[in-house]
Amino acid sequence: MLQKMYDWIDERIDITPIWRDIADHEVPEHVNPAHHFSAFVYCFGGLTFFVVVIQILSGMFLTMYYVPDIENAWKSVYYLQTQVAHGQIVRGMHHWGASVVIVMLLLHTLRVFFQGAYKKPRELNWMVGVLLFFVMLGLGFTGYLLPWDNKAYFATEVGLNIAGQVPLIGDWLITLLGGHPEIIGAQTLTRFFAIHVFFLPGALFALLAVHFILIRRQGISGPL
Amino acid sequence: MKRGKGMKFVGDSRINAESTSTVPKDYSEYPGRTEAFWPNFLLKEWLAGSVFLVGFLTLVLTHPSPLEGMADPTTAGYIPLPDWYFLFLYELLKYKYASQDFILLGVIVIPGLAFGALLLAPFLDNGPERRPNKRPIATSLMLLALVATIWLTYDSAGAVDWEARAEANKPIPASEVEIDTSDPGYAVYENSCMSCHGDDLTNGAAGPPLIGIEHTTEEIADISVNGIGDMPADVFQGTDEELQQLAEFITSVNEQAGE
């Protein structure tokens, strides 16, 4: 049955080459921890992506309860945390995942750096990776405000003040991020929500796609 | 070239006929044992991923995600702290030559140079050598940046009493607690306690919230007189009857909040 469905689709859109591009390749010995245990350092990138998937899924479920307005944001998080079945676990996964993803990202970056894996011809993929790092830090910064507790509020106040120190475009930057040059309030929360849930994930997906296409096209760097 | 014919877009267009050096070596050219990604290697990856997931979920289950009280811009004396992975940038701004007149150094120049160099690393370190000990400048700069980041983070986080912070900022749903201001204990509270613990017992300038505590009436009366932790003794000034009214009032608010 499955085979017939596959054949039906394959006959029309020739899916086999796509499938082979994604999955049909050999894994060289030097990155395989089954042969050399020290090759576990090559897992960091994959584990980063694994945590990103956890973040996407848990974040999707969080938005089923979260309300992005200053009256109800905190209450909805409190409700999720104390009343909803497994709500604490889903929020916990998103909260701790945000930290774990930074750790894995750092380890992955250091692996690539110290192995010199960013050298020709892989310069572009390194730059895409650093941009991914920035996007992830942006997601961390905007996500921190969303529970709308004291910690979130005052940290964001400091963060926006620092952004305001940037010469020439400082005030403009605050308004762009916070919705108002002075007030951190309803507009700030809504903007941070939009940035956290739509803008940055969009950039994240696009960069991840480029990152993965490049690694499949160029292959993994050879042994040192 | 017959691109597009027979709709072999992906498989046929992927690799140029005139292959250049940017095309990776065929894996058969690597020495040693290669393994098919699908399904052999992927199965092992799943195992590693599962072990990782068990560890991650253990962390999640043993450490519930923190939530402080609802944001209140009028909270006095709240010391803001960013999430831990921004602490190094935050701590940097406390140094003399990265703040005040030199704020641009701390906000733009130093982080800009560091992250800019990270972004452009392949062009700054563009020699053919890959081994870390064959490119000492890149390696030592990265190690220096790493040590500086860890030190700044440690310096910032080490100065914070995390448990006291969490204790002083417990989440209290505001709507659930109605303070009975006609209670005789409230008048006593107003005189002796409000300046530190706030006008709705949730917290104030110096004291932690009095809602969500697990003391008995007798213990509350005792603390009012003798103090506890950072709270000094003899804050309460009044008669024994007023002390009893105060303790019962605080207990009743807690009972109401617990419902």
Written overview of the protein:
Chain A: This is Menaquinol:cytochrome c reductase cytochrome b subunit. Chain A: It is a multi-pass membrane protein. Chain A: One of its GO terms (molecular function) is metal ion binding. Chain A: Keywords: Cell membrane, Electron transport, Heme, Iron, Membrane, Metal-binding, Transmembrane, Transmembrane helix, Transport. The complex is a heterodimer of chains A (224) and B (259). Chain A is 71% helix and 1% strand. Chain A is mainly α and 224 residues long. Chain A has one domain (17-218): Cytochrome Bc1 Complex, Chain C (Up-down Bundle). In chain A, helix 3 runs antiparallel to helix 5, helix 6 (123-145) runs antiparallel to helix 9 (186-218) and helix 7 (150-164) runs antiparallel to helix 8 (170-178). In chain B, helix 8 (184-192) packs across helix 11. Chain B is elongated. At the A-B interface, helix 2, strand 1, helix 3, helix 4 and helix 5 of A face helix 1, strand 1, helix 2, helix 4 and helix 5 of B.
Specify the CATH class of the domain at 82-160 in chain B: Mainly Alpha
Helical amount of chain B: 40-55%
Count of the separate structural domains of chain A: 1
Distance between the termini of chain A: 47 Å
| Strand segment count of chain A | 1
Biggest interface reads: A-B, 93 and 87 residues
Architecture (CATH level 2) name of the domain at 82-160 in chain B: Orthogonal Bundle
Q: If you average the pLDDT of chain B, what whole number results?
A: 82
The third-level CATH topology of chain A is Cytochrome Bc1 Complex, Chain C
Rg of chain A over CA atoms, rounded to whole Å, is 21 Å
Quickly count the helices of chain B: 11
Q: The CATH topology of the domain at 82-160 in chain B, please? A: Helix Hairpins
